[in-house]
Write a structure and sequence with these properties.
The structure holds two protein chains of two kinds. By secondary structure, chain A is an alpha/beta fold. Chain A contains 17 helices and 22 strands. Chain A has three domains: 98 residues, ATPase, nucleotide binding domain (Nucleotidyltransferase, domain 5, 2-Layer Sandwich); 160 residues, Rossmann fold (3-Layer(aba) Sandwich), CATH 3.40.50; 296 residues, no CATH class. In chain A, helix 8 packs across helix 16 and helix 12 packs parallel to helix 14. The longest helix of chain A has 25 residues. Chain B is mostly beta strands. Chain B has three domains: 215 residues, no CATH class; 70 residues, OB fold (Dihydrolipoamide Acetyltransferase, E2P), CATH 2.40.50; 62 residues, SH3 type barrels. Chain B contains six helices and 30 strands. Chain B has a 17-stranded mixed β-sheet that branches. The longest helix of chain B is centred in the middle third of the chain and has 10 residues. Chain B starts with a strand and ends with a strand. The N terminus of chain B is likely disordered. At the A-B interface, helix 3, helix 4, helix 9, helix 11 and helix 12 of A face strand 6, strand 11, helix 4, strand 26 and strand 27 of B.
């Protein structure tokens, strides 16, 4: 890796960035155009981590070659190296990359108390972009031999151990370590790989931990306690250490990564970690709360930033191809079918779901297949968000000062910090959302699954550029912000939804745009309406909720806000929150059909369709 | 001629197959280069560390962890038997001593002065790797395993459950589109690999379990039947470790679906031969499909010379394919056109497509992503 300290950000005109995914390596080129950074070209090629190439750099160079061909700018020299620095006609100034190839970063975490130090350790690992294979805690309801058996079955890239507050009791965290050491978890990369153990627990326990892992086969790293006191969570040092170990050990053992690391101008980041970083940068820069989701074939990642606190969850086995059958099993078929307005045979659907699972690369050919697939996606997203809300909480175990007034609302910490009413921006990415034939479908998938309340902007990641911008933010935040705003996000529009419930047909809220000069009206409970507001337009909206409904200022209180348009426009959602569809199938179909017609989700296609 | 790459499942009447038989951890290789092995021959062996049983002895005998080593009746490295006393407290004035017994047999691996915890390591667990594929050892990987080679007829299934097994192939149906019902399973099929035509029913599988059939291979299976047999709804297609008494392999997919005629005919032509099958399926990066390997006698080479083959992974006019998504799921035919320009599908998406001449004579247009090659 080149020294990032030497980078003069003002002198950067051309940036190349790649994201090495499990199947595809995606490259983008960013150029300074009229003093502003813009994403100009992109290319992709199959990832080459596995045989017969077994060298990730081959796929990277192929993807960059594609950019070279379409842009006409020479990027690779005759020796197969990236040309640097940029001139008028060739090369780039910096090259950066993220990676999730080969299954990404897989970790096991351990802590003393599941809801406290183990939860903090899990947050640190997830925030760093890892897949958490399991969380071991003294009170995880498994008996010690069951825990040891589980540790033996896993093949993590590294283990993060926490436990105890600084200066506190050392016994429990030592006990956990004493179970992990003899279990000898086998790393993925074979017997020559010394399994990295990161200890981020009670500082007083360090000598004991060193003793426990002194018996070879481990590479122990010690960093600051991630829970120095019950009231404080300090995830930064553990996250940094995870990144260091990821580069030193995991990447170094993946085929071709030694070369890749030597040619990047910033440390390679795990893909989800980079996505989290850019979302945080944006939330901080604009002073907003944001939620991002990336739904893939196997897993769904949810990222949130509320009041500056970042959380990420990975819902393993909630995905649209490899895991589609699991989504149906967890959500149940009747729950999925409530989003479907067409007649479908449940038995046949079950077989279709299994066929998608075993042939994950197929795409819906008929409208009926698309409607069903998007119904499954709503449930996958909804379940992933429920898991995220349960995980993104205030710290548990914190002593709180209470007044007499709190007597009847006692909470011991651990409440979710995800608040849909405070949510400003909801960002969608992942195949089923990005490649939906109509942007309206993407918007409604997000609204139905996440149920935003009040006034919320909706956007999608145009070409899954967030990983590239996440790593770019670490070396050139200004360029990352500019490209994010101008090229990365496709703004779908704004959703206005009132919290509360009422009688079908009764007034839910009234609205007016720019004092009524650009439209106004009433939305009845159960109704949804679209108002055109183009991608480059903004308008001031006044929303006056009916009694019992809330759009952000409290029940019945009006809200005025400047909103942004988009490819879909303004969506006025009077279906209430929490969103409840009728339980009776015929009524439910009727309600869903009304929504589909109002939004124009599945318009009849011309006769040319196959 | 327009060509495009698409994956497919292999159905080959003769191919040279290499089976990599590797230990999960380093061990001893029992076979030598050039050895001829059969399916049951143990080719490599190792011992994994035994299970660990932790026990906080200091707590049990109410002692300070720091004093535990001197209260232990056994020292680190010594063998202990289950229920054998391993520690004793000093008691008061030499009385009221508390004793702690070993919860498991094994070697006392560690005594912690910090926590008062001990670790007993159980017996080493033997791990054996069998040859699985009869053939000749063509490579020995020191401390790891061997590579076995043989000429085989190879059929990849699309999905399976259960692990490796072997036995003679027996046909239970009379055509590729006949469903496999319970009445087709007979007592004489014990230990054999039963080949059906279309969907295998839950009743047929239950009968096969009762009879002791080694494996069933058929065109399809219904989702509800699979759930009934496994006892749970399969969420992700990572299989191979199920303990249901036999191995199941489907060649086409879920639902009422017939086995591809070519696959059925290849299996029929090999009826009576001993096959090695594995139901393990892993549909993730590094995809693994179930397989049926039929080692061939030397006289089979002539049969093969008449077989045609296609360039692996390349779609071209005339290439035999299978449609793998509704509304034409399971239909088999040949590519009749490969238009360059993407077309709008019924779903509203734009995608590259191809025309398929189905066995029925009908020509349909489907997305290229929704077909797979039937590879020779």
């Amino acid at each position: 890796m080149n020294d990032t300290q030497k980078i003069d950000t003002d002198a950067i005109n051309v940036i190349l960035a790649t994201d090495c995914g499990s199947t595809t390596t995606k490259a983008i080129m960013i150029e300074k155009v009229d003093g502003v950074y813009r994403q100009t070209w992109r290319g992709e090629a199959p990832t080459t981590v596995e045989e017969p190439f077994a060298n990730v750099t081959v796929g990277v160079l192929n993807a960059l070659t594609e950019i070279q061909e379409v842009s006409g700018r020479r990027l690779i020299d005759d020796a197969g190296e990236i040309i640097r620095p940029a001139t008028e006609t060739e090369g780039c100034d910096i090259y950066i990359s993220t990676s999730s190839a080969g299954g990404g970063l897989q970790m096991m975490v351990a802590g003393v108390v599941r809801e406290m130090t183990a939860a903090s350790a899990k947050r640190a690992a997830l925030g760093a972009g890892a897949i958490v294979m399991d969380t071991i805690a003294a009170n995880d309801k498994r008996r010690p031999h069951e825990q040891i058996q589980r540790i033996r079955e896993l093949r993590p890239d590294m283990v993060l151990i926490s436990g105890g507050t600084d200066g506190g009791d050392t016994k429990k965290v030592t006990e956990i370590s004493e179970m992990i050491a003899p279990a000898k978890p086998r790393p993925r990369f074979g017997k020559s790989y010394e399994l990295p153990i990161i200890f981020a627990g009670n500082d007083k326990a360090r000598p004991e931990i060193e003793r426990v892992f002194s018996d070879g086969g481990f590479d122990l790293k010690i960093t600051d306690n991630l829970r120095p006191s019950l009231e404080q969570e300090n995830l930064g040092p553990a996250r940094d250490m995870i990144h260091d170990v990821f580069l030193e050990h995991v990447m170094a053992h993946a085929p071709g990564y030694d070369t890749l690391m030597s040619i990047t101008d910033a440390p390679i980041m795990p893909t989800p970690g980079a996505v989290g970083d850019i979302l945080q940068t944006i939330a901080k820069g604009r002073g907003i709360n944001a939620v991002g989701v990336d739904i893939g074939g196997a897993t769904t990642d949810v990222f949130s930033v509320f009041d500056g606190t970042f959380n990420r969850t990975v819902s393993a086995n909630l995905g649209m191809s490899y895991s589609i059958s699991n989504v149906c099993a967890e959500a149940t078929m009747p729950t999925i079918l409530r989003w479907v307005h067409l007649d479908m045979d449940e038995h046949e659907l079950r077989n279709r779901v299994k066929n998608k699972m075993i042939r994950p690369t197929t795409i819906p050919q008929s409208m009926e297949a698309l409607v069903f697939e998007q119904a499954v996606a709503r449930e996958a997203l909804r379940l992933a968000y429920i898991q995220h809300k349960a995980f993104a909480t205030t710290l548990k175990g914190v002593q709180q000062q209470r007044t007499v007034g709190d007597t009847f609302t006692q909470q011991s910490g651990g409440e979710t910090i995800v608040n849909n009413m405070k949510l400003d921006l909801l960002v969608a990415s992942g195949g089923v959302l990005s490649h939906a034939p109509r942007m309206h479908q993407t918007a409604m998938l997000m609204i139905d699954a996440f149920e935003p309340e009040g006034i919320t902007e909706l956007a999608k990641d145009s070409i899954f550029m967030m990983p590239h911008l996440g790593v770019l933010a670490s070396v050139h935040p200004k360029a990352a912000m500019e490209v994010f705003e101008r090229d990365c996000l496709v703004y779908l529009g704004t959703c206005v939804a009132a919290k509360g419930t009422g009688k079908e047909g009764k007034n839910c809220f009234s609205w007016s745009l720019d004092g009524g000069s650009r439209g106004s009206g009433d939305i009845a409970f159960g109704q949804i309406e679209m108002v055109e507001l183009g991608p480059d337009e903004t308008a001031e909206i006044e929303v006056r909720p009916a009694r019992g409904f809330d759009v952000g200022a409290g029940p019945g209180k009006p809200v005025t806000k400047t909103i942004r348009g988009g490819t879909v426009g303004l969506i006025l959602d009077g279906r209430g929150r929490a969103l409840a569809l009728p339980e009776e199938r015929a009524e439910c179909r009727e309600a869903v059909t009304r929504t589909i017609d109002a939004v124009g989700l599945y318009p009849d296609l011309e006769g040319s369709a196959v | 001629m327009a060509k495009a790459y698409t994956p497919g499942l292999k159905v080959s009447s003769r191919t040279t197959h290499l089976a990599h038989r590797i230990l999960p951890i380093a061990g001893e290789v029992k076979a030598s280069l050039g050895d001829v092995v059969d399916a049951e021959t143990v080719v490599a062996e190792t011992f994994m560390d035994g299970d660990i049983t932790p026990l906080n002895v200091a707590n049990l005998i109410a002692a300070q962890p720091g004093y535990l080593p001197e209260l232990m009746l056994k020292k680190e490295g010594e063998r202990v038997e289950k229920d054998e006393p391993i520690a004793r407290s000093k008691g008061m004035f030499g009385m009221f001593k508390t004793e702690c017994k070993a919860p498991a047999s094994g070697v006392l691996e560690a005594i912690s002065k910090a926590t008062g915890q001990i670790m007993i390591r159980g017996e080493s667990i033997p791990v054996q790797v069998k040859a699985y594929l009869p053939g000749r050892v063509v490579e020995v990987l020191p401390d790891e395993g061997v590579v076995i080679e043989n000429e085989v007829a190879l059929i990849q299934g699309i999905f399976g459950v259960g692990g490796e097994t072997s036995g003679p192939l027996v046909m239970a149906c009379t055509s590729h589109d006949q469903g496999l019902d319970a009445d087709a399973i007979t007592d004489s099929m014990a230990g054999q690999i039963v080949v059906g035509g279309a969907r295998m029913t839950a009743a047929a599988i239950r009968k096969a379990q009762k009879v002791g059939v080694a494996a069933i291979v058929s065109g399809g299976i219904d989702d509800s039947d699979l759930k009934a047999i496994l006892g749970y709804d399969l969420g992700v297609a990572i299989t191979g470790s199920e303990k249901i008494g036999l191995t199941l392999i489907v060649t086409e997919g879920f639902g009422e679906i017939s086995m591809a005629r070519r696959t059925y005919e290849l299996l029929t032509s090999n009826a009576g031969r001993t096959a090695s099958v594995n139901g393990a399926t892993q549909i993730r990066a590094g995809v693994m499909r179930p397989e049926i390997l039929i080692p061939l006698a030397s006289d089979a080479r002539d049969v093969d010379s008449a077989q045609s083959s296609t360039d692996s992974g390349v779609l071209a006019i005339g290439t035999p394919i299978r449609v793998i998504r509704d509304p034409y799921f399971g239909a088999i035919g040949t590519v009749s056109a490969l238009p360059e320009a993407p077309q709008v599908l019924g779903s509203g998406s734009k995608s590259r497509v191809l025309d398929v001449s189905l066995e029925s004579g009908e020509v349909v247009t489907v997305p290229r992503a929704n077909v797979e090659l039937i590879e020779a």
